[in-house]
Design goal:
The protein has 17 helices and nine strands. The chain is an alpha/beta fold.
Length: 421
């Protein structure tokens, strides 16, 4: 039921006793989780006592709980003015401002809160978040360090500092922070995945692959990972077929096709690859479509778990999957990169014509992988944050005998290479 304001007959102003009753009722509603009713009551208290810092603060908090951040801003700003020595008033204002993207103003509020509560690790951590949002990364890292000097197990600061350290190449420092965070939350899938990805990016598959499987507990880019209603294969002997599948929810996506082409490398056993119709037409392997009946399958495994279960290393990557498609190269240069080709270089951009190219330049996408499997000379451009599967080194790759991987700063070398073609 909507909250009702008890009014005196004739619209006479409320007495202090009535206002106090309203405030108590509002606090009870908020404590019970009924923030809509609490917000209505707090609004009426503020109308009656517009200079009450506590009422303004509670009104702003109720609106924050309701996700009405733009409406929460004004009462929280006023509350901070009337409660200049109350750290929570400045912290809640900063949180609201951060959500609204006003990070510079949020930082000012957090600076005030820090002066009032210099030993609060949480406030200093939030200051680091504001600094990071403003691109002041060195100062953000120092703020996280300051927070950790107060509480050395503060998980948000450990996680945030690990990300900054990893971004500037301090792998050891980042791993140390993640290890410390995991002592407090050993089953945290996000932390385990980040540690696994750091180890894998350095080529440490032995330690990284176990943690990397934590990804299967998390969504991918906001979408659920797909998995069949079958037991997860762990390498045991099977009484039935094995289903190997891309874990992407959209099996027709470039990421799913790319993973299938790169990772469908299995020993002689009874298996089938679940893949898109297009990839099924390329592979000379047993395939099934997503949605087909799974009768006769005993277990399943996502493609990205094969390196762990089959004990792959960068030195022992199996041969690429066989294809029905054959290369029929002419004079074309395939260009399958989001960057523009050099001027005066005629290129083929249609992925349907990959097999006709004598040279392919591309990003880490399906057409580039297809060219490499076909044995076409392939130059793959990889960003700084390339997929861990490629390993830390650039140049010839164990994944395909005809491929050369190039870093993001190899534009001049690429131009020179094309000039010789």
């Amino acid at each position: 039921m909507p909250a009702r304001l008890p009014l005196l007959d004739g619209g006479v102003a409320l007495s202090d006793q009535q206002i106090n009753a309203l405030a108590r009722d509002a606090i009870q509603r908020a404590s019970a989780g009924d923030f809509a009713a609490a917000e209505a009551l707090f609004s009426q208290v503020v109308d009656a006592r517009p200079n009450s810092g506590q009422a303004l603060h509670m009104l702003g908090q109720a609106r924050l709980k309701l996700g009405r951040f733009a409406e929460a801003r004004e009462p929280l700003q006023r509350a901070a003015q009337f409660l200049p020595k109350e750290p929570a008033a400045h912290v809640n204002l900063a949180g609201c401002l951060s959500v609204l993207g006003a990070h510079a103003e949020a930082l000012v509020a957090l600076e005030r809160a820090t002066k009032l509560a210099p030993d609060s690790a949480a406030i200093i951590h939030n200051k680091g978040r504001a600094l990071e949002a403003l691109g002041r990364l060195d100062e953000a890292e120092q703020a996280y360090t300051d927070a950790l000097s107060i509480d050395h197990r503060l998980m948000p600061s450990l996680s945030a500092r690990a990300a900054l350290l990893a971004a500037r190449g301090d792998w050891a420092g980042a791993l140390s922070d993640l290890d410390m965070a995991l002592t407090s939350q050993p089953n945290d899938a996000q932390l385990r995945l980040r540690r696994g990805e750091l180890l894998l990016a350095q080529g440490d598959w032995m330690r990284g692959l176990d943690d990397y499987d934590a990804r299967l507990e998390l969504p991918e880019h906001g979408h659920p990972r797909w998995s069949p209603d079958l037991p997860r294969w762990q390498g045991e002997r099977l009484d039935g077929r094995l289903l190997v599948y891309p874990e992407q929810d959209n099996i027709e996506s470039d990421a799913a096709m790319r993973d299938t082409l790169m990772l469908a490398r299995l020993p002689a056993m009874d298996f089938a690859i679940q893949c898109s119709f297009k990839v099924a037409g390329w592979l000379d392997l047993p395939t099934v479509r997503r949605g087909d009946p799974l009768d006769g399958f005993a277990a399943a495994i996502p493609l990205r778990s094969l390196p762990k279960v089959l004990d792959w290393t960068l030195q022992t990557v199996p041969s690429p999957p066989p294809l029905h498609l054959k290369a029929e190269p002419d004079e074309r240069i395939g260009w399958f990169s989001t960057s523009d080709p050099p001027p005066n270089v005629a290129v083929e951009r249609d992925p349907e014509h990959v097999a006709r190219c004598r040279l392919v330049v591309g990003d880490d996408h399906a057409p580039t992988h297809l060219a490499a499997i076909l044995g076409i000379t392939t130059l793959m451009r990889l960003p700084h944050s390339a997929d861990w599967l490629w390993g830390p080194q650039r140049g010839p790759s164990p994944w395909y005998h005809s491929i050369e991987t190039l870093g993001g700063d190899a534009a001049e070398a690429l131009v020179a290479r094309l000039a010789r073609c």
